[in-house]
Amino acid sequence: MRRIPIVNQSIASVGWQNETLEVQLFNDQLYEVQAVSKKEYEDFMCSESFDQALTRLEKTHPHHRIR
What we know:
Helix content is about 30%, strand content about 35%. The protein contains two helices and five strands; from the N terminus they run E-E-E-E-H-H-E. A five-stranded antiparallel beta sheet has the order 1-2-3-4-5, with helices on one face. Helix 1 runs antiparallel to helix 2. The chain is globular, with a radius of gyration of 11 Å. The protein starts with a strand and ends with a strand.
């Protein structure tokens, strides 16, 4: 999945494809959040706090660490 870099203290890049959000942290850990709609992804990308937006998604969507 292609990820794009974002400006954040802990998140290095984010990608979205087929309702799966990939989040790569600066420590190279990679997480997948599933069942994320395009609207939710767009809202995430427009959020003022990526960390808070990610926490909200993790509370309502299946997620796991890939590496």
